[in-house]
Amino acid sequence: MVDGRDAKQQNQRARFLPTSRADMSCRNWDTLDVLFVTGDAYIDHPAFGTALLARLLEAHGFRVGILAQPNWRSLDDMRRLGRPRLFAAISAGAMDSMVNHYTAAKKVRNDDAYTPGGRAGARPNRATIAYTAAIKGAFKGVPTVIGGIEASLRRLAHYDYWDDAVRRSILADSKADLLVYGMAEDALLELARRMANGDTITKVRDLRGTAFLAKSCPPGAVELPSFEDVSRHGTDFNKAFRLASDETNPHHGRTLAQKHGTRWLVVNPPSFPLTEESLDRLYALPFTKQPHPDYTEAIPAYTQIKFSITSHRGCFGGCAFCAITHHQGKIVQSRSKDSIKAEVDQLSRHPEFRGTVTDVGGPTANMYGLFCNNASAQANCRRTSCLYPQPCPQLDMSDHRLVELLSALQKHPAVKHLFVASGLRFDLLKHQPDYFARLLKHHVGGRLKIAPESVRSRVTDVMRKPGPKAFAEFLARFRQQSQALDKNHVIVPYFISGHPGSTLNDMIEVALFLKQHNLRVEQVQEFTPTPGSLATCIYHTGSDPLTGEAVHVPRSAKDRRLQKALLLWHIPEQWPDVLEALRLCGREDAARRLRPDRPRSMRRANSSRPG
Ligand code: SF4
């Protein structure tokens, strides 16, 4: 980035947090309290963790600056904002850097949605480790705090798909002083306060939502099998996963300890969820809602969320392949209607806003305002999902807050169109009739995105998703409702290929189900074993840590390719692979039923294909 050149530019820059010494001078700061280092471009929007936390600390009187996508190989660049007085807060960005860099087939991606121009290469592999080393090199002895999704989900010894091995806690590999996991507002603010009051970072050992390395196992901690043991034995890996899962409820979770060599990784219990008031205060902070003015090219991730609104955080779905519950927690925390309306007021003043709110949602859109209606049951709850295998009777699934919210926003004078584009739990929708009707009538623009992920019960059980019966029922209800509205809605289904539990035979049945129900998958999600998830644990050990059952894991490149092809049975180019899968499974009979409608020219050109 360059320093401001004229008054207008300087005024524009002054609305953002400092990214240069000149910005600091404009605020009469000679030093920062906290230096935020991030692998993403600096977008001053609450959808991005770095901006959210930096604005929070700023609101509490701390001097903060942002070092976005620095050159980690250059000491000069790392020193651009000077040595921070309290600590450096380091994050790989909104995604794990390895997921950001590589496809499920481990091929290098050539784009990065969080970088201007969508260009790849602006951050290193294992960015948390690389940035921490660079900060330590630039500022000897400065305390380092790591956080964000990469640090959070790699806090324990974990399976790494790219190394195909179990790695140590990222704390051990990065040598950071403290790790903040989950949504970090409370922990980071308290840490800054304590350090401002003179505590050294090694004294701060009791904060919820943090982890550190220690010389001994704290009394009362739940001892997980050591790094060495989980690296060698799948049974120990599963045991560690199971024990850790049992302690994720902030109301009863205990401290975890896991030996790494001669040291102990200590993970304090999770932070408590934020109250509605705290969440509202966060979203009322003075975000500009724009990328930093130094950027001259569009940032794809910003383009996508520019006119969208986060209504809540957390998810109680507990899907095995998803990391959100591990990061945001199972307890849904919702903003008030007034807070969200105030955000629409602000959006309406955006120079490019033309009246379309592109999304109102969260990890799962139709969980807004839902909660466990039994406080003592919640305090003692050990279920990983409030919905699987059946919705818990304690779950309040009423849609009145959702309906109130959407109808209030729709009445906003600046809003012409209001969409819900975040994912939905279709098994919840049957308990939310008014919301479902309103959704189809006003908020999905003809295409409803639904993620059954599979329609084979053996597989959906591994995924902790509702099975085929629930999906077929949903489809019938959807079509009935859509017809009653005289609309031609289309379901855009999302399915995963290569998930643990899924065989080629299962995928053939999925393809037949899709054909039978006239559904077409547009984009296949190939399963990637991302750090920390239940599905990744199963992928690594070949058995479910929570049930003890052995699970088939499709690992070979060929198996994964054929599974993907079966989801795309309707695309003629996929037919050689579809046919091979059918032949391998002795299911040539299915070819006739699956045959895609091909253009005449293609049929003539390749008459050896099934006809
Ligand atoms: S008691 Fe039921 S509704 Fe409450 S948190 Fe546990 S699973 Fe969810």
What does this 3D model show about the protein?
With 611 residues, this protein is α/β, with parallel strands linked by helices. Among the domains are: 198 residues, Rossmann fold; 166 residues, Transcription Regulator spoIIAA (2-Layer Sandwich), CATH 3.30.750. 37% of the residues lie in helices and 13% in strands. The strands form seven sheets. A nine-stranded mixed beta sheet has the order 2-1-3-4-7-8-11-10-9, sandwiched between helices. Helix 22 links the parallel strand 21 and strand 22. Helix 3 packs across helix 9, helix 22 packs parallel to helix 24 and helix 24 crosses helix 25. It starts with 6 loop residues before the first helix and ends in a 6-residue tail after the last helix. It binds iron/sulfur cluster. Iron/sulfur cluster (SF4) binds next to helix 16.
Sheet with the most strands, sense and barrel status: 9 strands, mixed
CATH topology of one domain: Rossmann fold
Provide the CATH top-level class of one domain.
Answer: Alpha Beta
The CATH architecture category of one domain equals 3-Layer(aba) Sandwich
Calculate Rg over CA atoms: 25 Å
In CATH, the homologous superfamily of one domain goes by the name Cobalamin-binding domain
Ranges where pLDDT stays below 50 over 5 or more residues in a row are 599-611
Q: How many β strands by DSSP?
A: 22
Summarize the amount of helix as a percent range.
25-40%
**Separation of the first and last Cα atoms:** 60 Å
Overall SS class? alpha/beta
- What integer is the average pLDDT? 93
- As laid out across the biggest beta sheet, the strand order is 2-1-3-4-7-8-11-10-9
Categorize the overall geometry. Answer: globular
Bound molecules: iron/sulfur cluster
Strand % is 5-15%
So how many helices? 27
